[in-house]
Amino acid sequence: MTVKYPQKIKVAVLPFGELMRINTSVEGKMEFSGVEGEILNVVLNSLGLQYDFMIPQDLQWGRQDKEGNWSGLVGMIQRDEADLAFSYLSMTEERSRVIGYSKPYMFEDHTFISQIPSNRRLTLTFLYPFDFSTWICLFLTLVLMSTLLAIFKSGIQSLGNQFFRLFASLMTQAVNTDGGSRKYNMLVAFWLFFAQVIVLSYSSTLLSFLIQPLKEAPIRNFNELSRAVQRGNCQANFTNFSLSFLLNSNMDHFMKLGKIVSSNNWIANTSALSSETVIKANFFLALNKNLAKSYFGTRNDLFFSEDRLFTSYLAFGYNKRFCCVSKLNTFISRISQAGLYGKYLRDRSMKLFFKSFKRSNKSKTETPLSFDDLISEFSLLIVGLSLSFVIFLAEIVYSRFVLV
């Protein structure tokens, strides 16, 4: 039996930034571009039918009200105003009760982006090359070696004298061993080697911090983001779709985050995004990873979290009386197997890269090290010179008035 396809079907589409651009030609015909637009063109050309295109007046994907009626693309299919719906449409259980879904052509991880944290500008920068535990171990090693050397000297030199000698070696000062037993000399040789390794490691690490200043620790996952929002330290914008996930989650930190976002109406307007969108400090934008890469993949001022809130699948929505489901799924399977969506996404990112590369070459300026970059090192130098001068005066006073 030959399946008879209709001559013309109605397709509901939704503009979605650079991913789905809808333009109208001189003849009044809708034309689609962007990653989603390319996929729609391929599918519709493969089906070989004629189409009437419609855009939902509320510019929504679909939200259900208390009476069970849907808005946006889903509502147009529910009311039999459209046969197909397409444009970054996620598959959900609630929507599947009123519309049918094709095979998915792409899946999305929902994550967040933020501004890369600022450089650390503290006067204790000289302590950053080693962490706290390393400094503690270094101090304990210094005390232990001083004790052993004092014991091997059999009381000739005090513990304090040995301690300051070894400490001087860490400051790259020469160490006078004054001779001693074989065990004593072996310990001194071991310490000198150890001190050389520590000094070189510290110097090279400190130099790397001067070349590339250390950043503040970023918020890396949704758990940390939830705690930061609860403290009132930042703002996090979510889409309506992701906010619903937070509010219905059984995890406490997700629910608390969702309630704060909902009470402050921190709703992200993803349709207004562009590659030039400003992401301010202490501001977090939750959105799909592919969407984030499409817009911001070439920017070096943003941090992309590797954590994911959930994974959703993108598909065509269709009226459950739509005749061409099998044919539609056949073409979508071929698109998925060929990796067309990934190709279009890479092409889009490459175009943005060349645009941003041209702009960065025009505006790129070299910034030399400033006094602010070296303030901790200068502070340490001044403190050391001051202490040396005080000790110098004390030695003069001691030699003239005490030893006389």
TrEMBL record:
It is found in: Cell membrane. It is a multi-pass membrane protein. It comes from the Eukaryota. SMART domains: Lig_chan-Glu_bd, PBPe. One of its GO terms (cellular component) is plasma membrane. GO terms for molecular function: ligand-gated monoatomic ion channel activity. One of its GO terms (biological process) is detection of stimulus involved in sensory perception. Residues 8-347 form the Ionotropic glutamate receptor C-terminal domain. Residues 15-79 form the Ionotropic glutamate receptor L-glutamate and glycine-binding domain. Keywords: Cell membrane, Glycoprotein, Ion channel, Ion transport, Ligand-gated ion channel, Membrane, Receptor, Transmembrane, Transmembrane helix, Transport. The chain crosses the membrane at residues 126-152, 188-211, 378-398. PANTHER family: IONOTROPIC RECEPTOR 20A-RELATED, IONOTROPIC RECEPTOR 60A. Belongs to the glutamate-gated ion channel (TC 1.A.10.1) family. This is Ionotropic glutamate receptor L-glutamate and glycine-binding domain-containing protein. It comes from Araneus ventricosus (Orbweaver spider).
